[in-house]
Amino acid sequence: MREDAMLDLLIQEALGGPTPSDQTGLILRRLADENAGSESKLAGSKNQSASPVAEHSSQPSLATILIGIAAGLLLCVGIAVGVKYRSGVALQAIAEEATDNAAPSVPTPSAVVESEDASPQPKPAPRKRAQPIELAGDPSTTLDDDPGSLSPELPSQQDTQSASPSAAVPSITLVSQNINSRWQSHWKRLGVSPTPSREKESIQQELADRLGLVIPVDAIGDAKAIRTAIANPSNRQAISKRLLTAILGKNSKHQDASESLSEVLKSGSGADRLIAAWMLPSKADSNPSPDEKSDSSKSAATPWIRMLQPTDLHEVTVKTAALTSHKDLRCQRCHDVPNSGDEVPTQADYWTVAAGLAPLLNPSRANKDLFYDTLDGRRQLAKRPSQEESRAWSDNLVGSRDLAEGIVSTLFAMVHDSPSTTSPFDLSVASAASVPSETLRPLVDDLIASDFDVLRSLSILLSDAVMTRSVPDAMSPQGVLIADDQQWSSAVSAVHAMAARSPFRRPGSAQRRLQVALLDAKPNWPGDSGRDTLLAQPLGSELSADGTPSNSEKRRPEKNGDRKTAVAATGYPMRSSMIVPAWISQLPDFDSRLDHVAHLAGQLKLNPSERELAHQALASGDDEALIFERLWWIIRPNS
User: Fold this and answer.
1) pLDDT class of 584 with cuts at 50, 70, 90
2) In sequence order, which residues have a C-beta less than 8 Å from that of residue 351 and are 6 or more positions away?
3) Is residue 159 part of a domain?
């Protein structure tokens, strides 16, 4: 074929083969012959149909003319409508631009369609994103003082609160009901059944014996009525003395401090400002005369240190941190607490507080560095705060939430004779039964909102669900002697969970408690010695706060009373019921463990009589856990 021949020629030329002969003429002649034949065929077909078509097309039809006229009219109408519509849109756009030049306009759909045909316009500025709608219950709208909220607060709200309440103080009845419902939830969570409520007369008698308060029977259980009853001068004076004793952990000899506290209780506000003033140096001490020489025996620089004297640095550190920061620094003097987490203060925290208080306790060592030994044998320098930081610390106590928690904890211990919280190294109760912080959080919030009205907080505690609980059967005078281990453990667990009331009341004097312990530790005393005379003295709730007998003529037991019953009435541990921390067994010897028990009580060491009693019990074969529990009963502070 022709195409194959042409393809062969092109391939040969591309491959560089021999030059072919010129075939151009032959190709042109063949193309001419083919074109001539096709034209003749086309002419014949045209001649057959040309005549009728020509005749028909020479005369245009009437329908074609009418269709053309109608199309022209429609085109004119469309042009007129379009021009009018464009004019109206332009006038509307000019009017909107004149009335609101600043606000970005949202174009209408017709304007958007029209703008596609017009010249390109600048793009309008994007609209601002709408703010999200906060739904009810959103975390951002949750109030900080919500009792049920568990979310953390901001640092400024957590460290310092305003001295004057910004919101209305809630009803004292509502706060009391809120706390009672939290106690019920706490007991349900622990699986502990609270004991039945006791008679109001029993509560009235306990408040009179333990706190020296005279409250009508009708007011028992009513926080508002109790608040009115304890505001009278005699009750207020009794509260100020016992509260100061609970804060200091010892009987106060400063009458002026008790009187100033009584005035603050009367005013119904300002307890935080009074405590902050205790931490400031007196004017006479802060501005000594030029010719006055430094004397280490001179009175301390702050009223707080004066009230604690005689004292040592460890006691000052522990009690100051407990009140002002609500921190437990009893056991960090020598080492960190093992496996305690980030919430428990460290040894460095302890010595930082001690370094700030050391110059106040001993002004002669104000410019000397304070070193401490770590558990691995290294020697560290305690970080001492500057004067500006010390001044800011006392100023920040006003309205402080930490101070409010410290006051509530002190009031709780004073009313219920038990700490509000426990630590991993505490010897008092099992940590699993400790009171959760959220249970007393409404009371802390209420204390801040009321501008530190201490009597208001005290009245809520005196009417709470814990105060109305009765004594377990295993702890009755006869149950103590006949209850088995299971019954006793259940009763102790209920008391530790605050679901039952303990009938035992420790003597307020540490010396009196030591005498009770010596009675039980020496069973071979002759009967005609002074032992029976001591046992015949009233114990437990029959003692006043300072350990002296109260109304002894009416309540003196018979001389033939059972020794164990008399000793047990004071709450002296007759069997081991507490959980001893595992870390205490890691200490090298028995004496070092005794020293750490003393540290937990805020003491540097035991006195000779207490140490001798512990060694005597160990030699007689007593279990160390029972020895520690009895020793803790003797030396544990009242607050």
Assistant:
1) confident
2) 370, 372, 380, 382, 383
3) no
- Is 561 a member of any domain? yes
Whether the CB-CB separation of 564 and 281 falls below 8 Å is answered with no
Whether the CB-CB separation of 632 and 584 falls below 8 Å is answered with: no
Tally Cβ neighbours within 10 Å of residue 5: 12
Q: Are residues 388 and 502 in the same domain?
A: no
The answer for residues whose C-beta is within 8 angstroms of residue 471's C-beta and 6 or more apart is: 195, 198, 500, 501, 502, 503
Please report the pLDDT score of residue 250 as a whole number: 84
User: Rounded to an integer, what distance in angstroms lies between the CA atom of residue 587 and that of residue 207?
Assistant: 42
Task: Copy the structure tokens of residue 286.
Answer: 């802060």
Indicate whether 530 and 392 sit together in one domain. no
| Residue numbers of the domain that contains 559 | 485-635
User: Taking residues 149-158, what's their average pLDDT?
Assistant: 34
The b/e string for 602-623 (b: 16+ C-beta within 10 A; e otherwise) is: bbeebeeebbebbeebeeeeee
φ and ψ of 400, to 5 deg: -70, 135
CA 439 to chain centre: 11
H or E element, residue 313: helix 313-324
Q: In sequence order, what are the beta bridge partners of 372? A: 380
Please name the residues in contact with 46: beta carbons below 8 A apart, sequence gap of 6 or more: none
- Mean pLDDT score of the chain: 73
Give the rounded distance of the alpha carbon of 528 from its chain centre: 58
Q: Regarding predicted confidence, which is higher, 158 or 569?
A: 569
Q: What is the pLDDT of residues 321-374, one digit of tens each?
A: 999 998 888 777 776 766 566 667 888 888 999 999 998 888 887 788 888 888
DSSP state letters, 207-232: HHHHH-----GGGTT-HHHHHHHTTS
In a domain, 626, yes or no: yes
Q: Which among 384, 237, 249, 393 is positioned nearest to 309, based on CA atoms?
A: 249
**What number is the average pLDDT over the span 183-192?**
91
pLDDT at residue 102 in the model? 42
In angstroms, the CA 633 to CA 514 distance is 9
Angle between the N-to-C axes of helices 441-449 and 172-190, in degrees from 0 to 180, rounded to the nearest 10: 160
Above 90 in pLDDT, residue 205? yes
Whole-angstrom Cα distance, residue 161 to residue 403? 10
Q: Which two tokens stand for residue 548?
A: 């002296």
Rounded to 5 degrees, what angle do the CA atoms 465, 470, 471 make?
135
0.85 surpassed by pTM: no
CA neighbor of 402 nearest in space, from 455, 447, 358: 447
**Omega before 310 within 30 of 0, i.e. cis:** yes
User: Dihedrals φ, ψ of 197, to 5°?
Assistant: -70, 150
Distance in angstroms (rounded) separating the CA atoms of residues 253 and 239: 16
d(CA 281, CA 618): 47
- Cβ atoms of 454 and 407 within 8 Å: the answer is yes
- Token pair for residue 490? 């259940």
Considering only 103-107, 277-281, 505-509, 618-622, which range has the smallest mean pLDDT? 103-107
Same domain, 389 and 530: no
Out of 88-97, 395-404, 491-500, the most confident range is 395-404
